[in-house]
Amino acid sequence: MVQAWRKVNFGTGTVTFLDDTQKEDMLQVEYPNGFLLDMGWYQDRYIISIIHNFDWTHPVKRYEAADRDQLPALLTEAAHSVERASQNDKVEKWRKES
Hints:
The protein has 98 residues and is α+β, with helices and mostly antiparallel strands.
């Protein structure tokens, strides 16, 4: 079965890891200027994190969903957000607005 998130448009992002298994490491997309979009399953929910300069301790933005059906919409929203942020140097401003 092809997962719905395989159809998400990640813009300028490059999918560097994709695994349909429900586990911590499921999806990673690299963007320009040091941005990553990361998705995984943690205990009872999916978590999508936007990371800048490999600072995993302080994600720029985070999305959560308990239901797999919510993922395409959340991934699309996250991809659009990180796409905009990766095209400029306004990371701190974006971090504060999140």
